[in-house]
Design a protein that fits this description.
The chain has about 250 residues and is mainly β. The protein has one domain. The protein contains 3 helices and 14 strands. Strand 11 (about 220-225) and strand 12 (about 230) form a beta hairpin. The protein is globular and about 45 Å long. It starts with a helix and ends with a strand.
Length: about 250
């Protein structure tokens, strides 16, 4: 009986903790109106220039901080908020092998410990259903400051994601980690990460492959911490409607 009561107490405690945490960067912002009017990055994503042999075959585009409809969404795997993944949905025109993937994330304190990223590629995702996992890993990451948006630091998280993608709709996530039990920054709630969404008008590459919630699931959220299992950010949470994510894929 004591074990049952303890389990119920812990579940209730995590539920209360989750209720107090913001799901988006604009909601987490301390200033009025989510810190509009900040710098807009207008350069080619660094990941797309890493190697001539591995160019970007897809990039959803930059977030436009002056557009109040654009936001950044929980995408973090820390001791404080574990396994909270935002997926990008793309329509792959032909079967192809890829080498790496990246996501652009906003963070105030950005502690990567270890400096790795958890990543997934899936097909057949639908509401409440993760579909088929075709590739995944937890690999060393290259983390690069690429700007300041909404008064947060903008970090690009790039990791190797060797995978053969089938033609058709594919969902992928690249999520920064802070899981070192000896690092208090990973557990004290200051190390939050939010992946940027985008309308694809700034520096996008092959954005015609972006799938939005108007034609499918669109950006998708899987987080046991927040109580969502493969939920459409638009349909279920009312954000990122008609938009994609600021993430990319390298050949």
């Amino acid at each position: 009986m004591k074990k049952i009561l303890f389990a119920v107490t812990m579940i209730a405690a995590f539920s209360v903790l989750a209720m107090g945490q913001a799901l988006t960067a604009r909601a987490a912002a301390r200033g009025p109106e989510s810190r509009n009017g900040s710098q807009i990055r207008l350069i080619t994503p660094p990941a797309c220039t890493v190697s001539k042999q591995h160019p970007c075959v897809y990039y959803g585009g930059d977030l436009n901080a002056n557009d109040p409809q654009q936001n950044s969404l929980s995408n973090e795997n820390t001791l404080f908020i574990p396994n909270s993944f935002t997926y990008t949905e793309v329509n792959v025109p032909i079967a192809a092998s890829i080498s790496a993937s990246f996501s652009n994330n906003l963070s105030e304190q950005a502690v990567f410990d270890p400096r790795t990223a958890t990543w997934f590629y899936r097909t057949g995702v639908s509401e409440g259903n993760g579909g088929t996992l075709i590739c995944s890993g937890d690999n060393p990451a290259t983390t690069t400051v690429v700007g300041n948006l909404l008064d947060f630091t903008e970090w690009q998280v790039l990791t190797t994601t060797p995978c053969k993608l089938p033609a058709g709709n594919v969902w992928f996530a690249v999520t920064p980690n802070c899981t070192n039990p000896n690092d208090t920054d990973c557990s004290n709630g200051t190390d939050r990460f939010f992946e940027e969404d985008t309308d694809g008008t700034l520096n996008g590459i092959n954005t015609r492959f972006t799938v939005t919630s108007n034609t499918g699931m669109g950006p998708t959220f899987d987080s046991s911490f927040f109580g969502y299992s493969f939920a459409s950010w638009c349909n279920d949470l009312g954000v990122a409607c008609g938009e994609g994510m600021s993430a990319g894929v390298l050949k």
